[in-house]
Design brief:
With 347 residues, the chain is an alpha+beta fold. The chain contains eight helices and 16 strands.
Length: 347
């Protein structure tokens, strides 16, 4: 499969990082466990935010719920305290609790190894409903799958119908995991912002690809998804020195990227953004009550707003381009954008 840029479709004007993935932010890794059988098209995707223990040195973080039709865990504390203290895991709707439990076990193990007492922890878990293709009620994702995803974590991770994106449907087409990044300068220094999505949303007729309205054309040759529903999880990583309030301003701009692909964030779609920065770390056990952090002035956030919008749009298109046509547990066939459109337009 090819990523969207390999078809000559370029979104925005900023330059991507070397991999054009969320892992262009130094220290960030992504791993998957994919369950792809006759009855199950599902899995788990884990975003590891840093090389060390995030509980001991928390990352400044933010969450934004554009439309709240979702079952995520951990966002209340992120919203209140402005920090992230675990990896972020994505899975299907009915496995959120099991994946949350698995992250608790992993953090307990890591903290024991580090000699850190852990009596409370806030795992962050997001979800999309993959029941069109997956027998979701059997809840096949748990501790072993989360452990395997963590062990699989790397900078150059797979995209498309893998991990938490194995069974997702986007604009009535096969969705999945997609990623992109942007680099830009502020005050003479170069910064990176990366996005990863789990795409499971959108009305077929509204689909836009590279500014071109292709949805109506695709709706004529496949079974269209009429309503914008199903959800998208958007995870944004950066190395910008920002506060959690500033970070929330940045991750809101992911909604611009969704709109550029044709989403109107419908009633039945959980459109949730989670962001963190590796620049400012908050120690769990600080010797002093006063902490010093670097933050940008508000007007300097313009480039980051642009980067979030551009990278989100491209990440969604990569999730579509890299996903393969899939037959689900009840014989449902969801075609890929590549099969229906992109491969036919190749020169």
């Amino acid at each position: 499969m090819k990523r969207i840029r390999e078809y000559g479709i370029i979104t925005g004007r900023l330059t991507p990082g070397p991999l054009n993935k969320i892992t262009d932010v130094e220290g960030v890794l992504v791993g998957h466990t994919t369950i792809d059988t006759r009855d199950h098209k599902t899995g788990v995707t884990v975003i590891i935010p840093c090389k060390d223990n995030p509980f001991r040195q928390k990352l400044v973080a933010a969450a934004y719920i554009h439309n709240g039709f979702g079952k995520s865990q951990g966002l209340i504390q992120v919203e209140e305290l402005g920090t992230l203290e675990t990896p972020i895991a994505l899975t299907n709707t009915l496995n959120v609790g099991k994946v949350h439990d698995a992250l608790v076990d992993l953090m307990l193990e890591q903290c024991r190894q580090d000699g850190t007492e852990l009596a409370s922890v806030n795992p962050v878990v997001g979800e999309c409903n993959d029941s069109v293709l997956n027998n979701i009620s059997e809840r096949v994702v748990g501790l072993e799958e989360v452990k395997a995803a963590v062990a699989d974590a790397s900078p150059d991770f797979e995209e498309g119908a893998v991990g938490a994106g194995c069974g997702t449907v986007c604009y009535g087409l096969k969705g999945g995991i997609g990623s992109a990044s942007r680099r830009f300068k502020i005050g003479g220094e170069t910064y990176t912002l990366g996005v990863m999505v789990q795409s499971n949303f959108g009305s077929t007729e509204n689909l836009m690809v590279g500014g071109r309205a292709v949805g109506k054309e695709i709706a004529r040759i496949t079974v269209p998804q009429v309503l914008d529903r199903g959800s998208i999880m958007t995870v944004i990583a950066t190395d910008l020195p920002v506060s959690d309030r500033q970070l929330k301003r940045i991750i809101k701009r992911a909604g611009v990227g969704l709109s550029r692909t044709g989403s109107y964030m419908g009633h039945g779609s959980g459109d949730i953004m989670i962001g963190f920065t590796t620049a400012n770390r908050i120690p769990e056990q600080a010797e002093k009550e006063l902490l010093t952090v670097r933050v940008l002035k508000e007007s300097a956030l313009e480039a980051a707003f642009t980067a979030a919008a551009e990278a989100t749009e491209e990440a969604i298109l990569n999730s579509l381009a890299m996903a393969k046509t899939t037959t689900g547990c009840r014989g449902n066939v969801i075609h890929s954008l590549t099969d229906l459109l992109l491969s036919k337009e190749q020169p």
